[in-house]
Amino acid sequence: MNQFIQNISTEFIKSKKTFAWWLVICGAAFMPLFISFVFLSKWKWLIPQPSHNPWDDFSEMSWKGTTFMYLPFFVVLLICLSLNIEHKNNTWKHIFTLPIPKEQ
């Protein structure tokens, strides 16, 4: 377990100054802000019935919008950015200097 924690901390060190962190933070906030804007701009259309919970509609719209439009592009971009960290110039030299044991 200690080796696993060291490997995770090494990955954080490698990806600390990349665009991937900003993408994760901004990407996680994009769809809820977009759906909130839709709810605020079309509030008359979205007035719930007396026995209906409006949070059900909000979560359903957020989930459908995220999975259909945003999630596939986000996953592909994050994978490409994380693989680019491994294959940039001189990255392998940097990996050998990180504080993880080299033996198995």
From TrEMBL:
Keywords: Membrane, Transmembrane, Transmembrane helix. Pfam families: ABC2_membrane_4. The chain crosses the membrane at residues 20-40, 67-85. It comes from the Bacteria. This is Uncharacterized protein. It comes from Niastella caeni. The lineage of its organism: Bacteria, Pseudomonadati, Bacteroidota, Chitinophagia, Chitinophagales.
